[in-house]
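FIELD: query
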Amino acid sequence: MTAYDVIVLAGGAAKRLGGADKPGVRVGGRALLDRVLAACAGAARTVVVGGRRATARPVVWTREVPEGGGPLAALGAGLRLTTAEYVLVLSADLPFLGPGTVDALLAAAGRTGREGALCTDPDGRDQPLVAAYRAEPLRRELALIATEHGSLAGLPLRLLTAELDLARVEAGPDAAFDCDTWDDIAAARARIREHGAVLDEWMTSVKNELGIDLDVDTGLLLDLARDAAHGVARPAAPLTTFLVGYAAARASAGAGPEEAAAAVAEAARRAAALALRWEAEASAAGDTADGAKPDAGREGTGTP
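FIELD: result
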C-alpha cells in the first residue's frame, strides 16, 4: 500500500448548521470526524486542522492562520506537519467515506505523470477535499498562490486544483456525500438504517466503541443465534453469542486479529453444532410423545 499522511479539515463556521460543532455531530452513534478517521486508519500521520476534541484514534492538531481563514489556509497549515510523499486531504463531514475510496485515490495519484487524484460526485463535480495529492507539487502550488495573493486566507480551492495535473476518480453516490445542512445529517442518519446497511453500520460502530479490531463474520453469528433460538429457546440467542465471544477471547488471548477471528469462527461452529443436537433431541422427544418408539425400525434388523 502507498505510504501516505492525511490532513482532515475540521474547521469552518458551519453556518448552514446554525454554527453547530459539525465534526462532532453524530451519525450512527459516531462523530462525523471519527467516521472519516476510520476510513484512513492506514495513514502514517494524521493531521486535523480545527479545534481540539476527543477522537477515536490519536491525531496531530493544528489551526489555520488566521482561524477561519478557509480551506487553502487550513491545507497549508496541515501540510507543514506532514512528511510523506503522498497526502490525503479530506473534509471532516463525510459519513460514508470508506477505505476503498482512499485506496482508489492513492492508486490514481501514483500513476506516472499525475500530481494527484480527486473524487468526482455523481453529477461530475470535482471534490478537492476528497483527494490525494503528491506532496511536492502541492507545496509548490500553495507557495506560489501565497506569494501571488499575499496569503492563503479566504482563497478558493479552485486556485489550487486548476494548476495541478489531477486524475479523476468516480466516487459513487456515497463516498463524496457531505453534510452541510441538517437535512443532509437527517438523510445520512436515515441511510445507515436502511435494510442493506444497518447491520454493517451497527457492527462497525460497536467495534469502534469497544476498541475492537476484528473482522467479524456477521452471517456466521446470525446463523448461530438462529440455531440457538430455534433449537433451544429464544433467550438462548444473545446469551450464546456472548459466550462464544468470551470463549474466543480466552482462546486467542495475546493473538492477532486473524487468530481472534478464527477463534470466533471455531467457537461459533461448536456452539451451533450443540444447538442442532438440542434441536434433534427435542424432535426425538416429540416423536416419542406422539406414540412413536425411538429407533423402532432398527431393533433386531442388524441395521447400524
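FIELD: remark
The chain is about 45% helix and 15% strand.
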